[in-house]
Each structure stands twice: as C-alpha cells, then as structure tokens.
Amino acid sequence: VGYLVIESDEDIRDMKLKIVNSMGVSAKIITNINTYQISFSKDNLAPGIYFCILYDNENKPAANLKLIIM
Predict the structure, then answer these.
(1) Phi–psi pair at 2, nearest 5 degrees
(2) What is the rounded distance in angstroms from the CA atom of residue 10 to the CA atom of residue 21?
(3) What is the pTM of this model?
C-alpha cells in the first residue's frame, strides 16, 4: 500500500483534484478539498504517467503537475 501526498504553501479551499492518465482518462477524483495537504492511495493507479489537475471552486484549473507511477 502506497500513499501520495501533495502539499501547498497556500490554503486550499473548496477545490477538486482530478488525476488523469496519459490518454486523458480520469483515474481518480478527490472533491471538497479544504486543507494544505492532499493524501491519497496509489493502489488503484497502474504504472504509467498521470497528470494531476487542481480545480478551484469555479471549476477552473488552478495548478497541475505530472505524476509517474512505477
């Protein structure tokens, strides 16, 4: 069992994290984020390249990063 942690210097309020694979298919969505730190299990993510997109409360992309699962 492995967990991934994403931390922010800023307070995250009413945001959503969407993780999509390299084909653009949604692999995981975490909603109602209200913390400086997002933690989630990588168990259901197959090895590959993913993109994490953080959406604000107006559903506009606020940040993104690339994630590689081996």
Answers:
(1) -130, 145
(2) 26
(3) 0.84
